[in-house]
Structures are given as C-alpha cells and as structure tokens.
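Now read these lines:
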Amino acid sequence: MGLFSRKPPQKSYLGIDIGQSGIKIVELKNEKGRARLVTYAYAELPSESYDKALTEDLGKTAEFVKKMLSKSRSTSKLTIAALPISAVFSSIISVPGSSEKEVKDAIQLQAKKLIPVPLEEVTLDSKTIDSDSTGDGGKKVTRVLLTGAPKTLVQRYLDLAKQAGLELISLETEAFAQIRSLIGKDRSSIMVIDIGAARTNISVIEKGIPFLNRSIATGGQGITQTISKTLSIPLDQAENMKRDIRSMQSFAQTGDVSIILSTLLKPIIDEIRYSFNLYQGQTENGQQKRIDKIILTGGSALLPRLPEFVTQLMNVNAYLGDPWARVIYPQDLRPILDEIGPRFTVAIGCAMRDIE
C-alpha cells in the first residue's frame, strides 16, 4: 500500500528508512520473484532529530544519503521510503455501496469527517479489505483501510530524493513495510512491537492488514537513560550494558532479568497491555478477536531475553522478528545481518515492495 506509486520496469530497488537513530538503506534485487541482497548501509543522522533532518537539514541529509549510497556501491536509483506511523492517519472504515464510484464517494465523505485537517492538505490512499458485510436493510457495505499523510511531509520526501539523485516511486507506511519483511503471507492475528530509539510503535496485523496502530514517545533512548541514571554511569556504558545479559543480571539483585525489564520497560508494557486488550475486546461475527503471536523488532528488541519476558507477560508466544527470512544473502554475512536485522525491518520491507 503506497500513498503514491508507479511500477517501472526495473529489477533492483532501494528501501530507505529515516528514523530517530539514523538512516537505514537496503538494496534488493528481484531474482525470479525472490529478493536478493545487493547492499546495505546504516549511519547516524547528522542532526538531533528526525524532524530536523527533513526540515532544517534536508540538504545535509540528502548529501549524507548520497555518501551512504556511494560507499555501499548502490546501483539502483528507484526508491521506496517509509513514513513513520506517528505521522500518518490510519483508520478502518465501513462505507456503503458496491460500485467503484459509490465506494470512492463514500470514502471521501468519511475522510472529511475523520481527518482533522482539510483534505486538500492530505495525500489519501485506501485499500479494500472486504465487501461481504451487509448493513441496514441488507445493503452492501465495504470495509476499507483509509490512510492519509500531510502533503507537506510527502513533499519533503520527494525533495530529499531529488536532492540525493534518487527517484522516489512510492511512499509506504512503516506498518506495511513490516508486514512484508516480518509476516509475509501469514494470515494469523499478529502484534508487532517495534521498539525504536525514541518511539515504540505497536501494530496488530490481521490477515495482512494493520487493524490497529499506536505509537508512544518512548523507546531505546529512554531505557538507556534509565540505566544511566539508576547506576550513575555514562550513557555509552549504559547502552552497552542493556545488550549484555551478564551485565543485566548483575543489575538485577536476584539475577532475574524479568525484574529489571519490568522496570525499564514499564511505559512500553503499559501500552502493550492496553493495545492487546483493545484489540481482543472486539468481536467479529459473534467471535471475540484474539492475538495469535507477537513479533518484536527495532533496535531495542535485542534486549536480553526480551521475547521470553513478553511471552510470560502476555501469555502469547513472542519472537524476535527476522526481516532477512525472505531475502537471499551470502551465508557468511549471517552473524552481522542477525545483529543489525531489527533496525533494518522497515527498509527491507520497503525494498521488497515491487519484488514479492
């Protein structure tokens, strides 16, 4: 699902993810319907925040991207970039009508009611979920995923791509990029927890569609700061500690990592529980919805024993997501790809858009 898109005849694509902690770039080649890794690059942002990178430092960010592409020996110019969940409006709506025009008109009417800014300022996209429901009087009702992003934000990405010498062929939401790289064709109800540097995004994916999206302003940086403050140690030492199981065990007096994870992740845990209950409190066709599994991603998903902790906490199996699972790559790169994988989930999913 892209807020705008076209599909040129090219076999290699770049996926770009600009986040709070840095820029991630992946180039994937279409090899008989399978994605093959061509190259990748990661670098810290040359600014203090994501917002600044796309406003005040747009030119500097574009030059930075060009250097990354040069050093990684990228060959493609065709680019798919990701829009952050926190910047995108998303809602499941039900609209009357069976013809394409009736549905389109109804979507526009609903969008005017739901989106708190004039539609002239928003780039809209919609994806039909199903048309089997019946409304009052037996009239046909179509369920639609409605997505909107500020045109000013879309234009910034277009400007960034142009200045970096790239051709932006589509803008994707992070949720759909993650579905491609982490979920594929799995039709289970899956909660994806993306613990980034400054934000944690939580999505519930049902039959390949994001039915619930939430974002909170806390992430790995907050965890590092908590460790640093509690132990009175420098931030770089705290950052290393949170990835070392032995250090984490020494942090917890009893050696039980779950105790310290409960403390470090409290705001995130509260949001996970809220989102979990919000989804499972819904019913469809007389049956209560349920989450079948949980996938963890993002840089701080590498916290020691986090999947086991979340499994015990929510009583649902939780796993560390592997965004490389649907990508062909040299096996000798496996150790480093495993290490960087959680950070590259969105970039990989973007690059896969026109391959699978």
